[in-house]
Design a protein that fits this description.
Jelly Rolls, 13 helices, elongated, six-stranded antiparallel β-sheet, single chain
Length: about 425
Amino acid sequence: MSAIPEKIGKYRIIEEVGRGSMGSVYSAHDPFADKKVAIKLAHSQYVKEEETGERFKKLFFNEAQAAGVLNHPSILKIFDADIDGDNCYLVMEYIHNAKTLGGYCKPDTLLPIREVVGIIYKVAKALDYAHRQGIIHRDIKPENILQTSTLDIKIADFSIAMIIREDFLETQFHGFLGSPLYMSPEQINEWQISTNTDIFSLGIIMYEMLTGHHPFKANNLSAISKKITSEKTPPLSEFRNDVPEGLEYALKRMLKKSPDKRYNMGLDLAADLALIYEDLDDVENQDSLREKFESIQNLGFFDGFTDADIWELIRACDWHKYDSNSHIIREGEEDHSFYIILSGVVTVEKNGQQIDSLQEGNCFGEMGYLTKAKRSASVIAKSDVSLIQVNASTLDRAAEETQLRFLKIFVKTLIGRLADTTSILTQASSRS
C-alpha cells in the first residue's frame, strides 16, 4: 500500500477513508474554507499509463463535470478538481461516519420495509433531479449510495455518468461501462440508454435490500448478462411473505427488461413509493421480527446455523398457531413443506394409531419436502402449538451452505425416526 501523502494541492491530508478501483479517498482540511473535505486521488499507475492515461484522466474528471452541475441535498457535492504534478484529484463534500447501502443487503442486516421504501424514495427523487439536469448516472449500485449519520442519502461517483445537456459538447464515453451486476439490459447489449437505465439499477438495489439476495448473481459475466437480459427475476415471495402487493408491483416495473415498460422518470417511481409508504403500518415491525429471531435462535434444530440463515428463514417462512386437537397435517394430503415446533406438543398418527410424540425444537414433515409424496401420517396438536412452516421453494432459493445444513438435520431426524420405528416393530413382534 502506498504511503499517505501529507498534502494534495492546498489540502492537508488527515487520513485514508476509502479505496476503490479508480482511486483512494482521504479526509482533508481545506485551509481557505476552514472545513473538512474528502479528496479522491486517482491511482497514479493509471494516470501514467502511456496509451490509456489520457482517457483515464478524462474519465476521472468526468465526475466533476457531471456532478458539478448538480445541486441537490441527496447528491454528493463536488467542490474542486485539479492536477498537482502527477496527482489528479477531486475535492468533495465530507460525510462523517457515512455508510454505503451495501451494509443493508445481507439477510441478517436488512432494514425494516418502511426504511427501505424511504431510502429508495429519496434516491428516486435525487435521480429525477439529475435526469432533468441532463445527467444519467450509469453506475447506480449500493457502494455508490451513502447514508449519513442523520439517515440522509447521498448519491456519489458520477465518474461514468452520461451528460446529455445542450451546453455540453465534449465527446461522451460509450460502450460497456458500469458494474456488471447492476447494469441494465441496454447497458449489457451496448444499446442506447436513457434515464430509466438508472431506474433498473435502483430496482436491483431495492431487491437486495428487501431479500438479502442479488436477483442476477452468477459465477461469470456471461451468466450474469444472460440473467439480466433474458431471465425472470425470482419473486420476492420466495424470500419473504410480508411484502405489500403494491411494493412488489413497483419493483417488477423497475426491473422490466424493456426500458419503455419501466418507470420513465424517478418522480413517477417516487409517487408510487409515497403511496406504498402510507400503507406500511400493517407490515410487521422490526421489534416483532427480533422477538421471532430470539424465540428460535436457541432451539436445538438450529445448532450450526448462522444468524444470516435464521433471519432468512424468519422472513421467508409462514408462522402458525394451532389450538389443541387441531389437525396440522392430514394423512393422504399433498403438502411439500416441513414444520418446526416452537412450543407445544403434537402427536403423529397413522391409521388412527399414535406412532410418535414431538415437542418444542422437533421438526416433522421432512419426508414430504424431500420426496414430494402424499402424507403418510397425520400430525395433530395435543396442546396449543406454535410452529413455522418451511416451503420447499424457500430452501431451493437458499444458499447452498444453508441447504446442506437443513439436509444434514433431515438425515439425522430420519435416521432417528427409522430407529424408533424399528424398535416399536421389534417390540410388537416379540409380544405377538
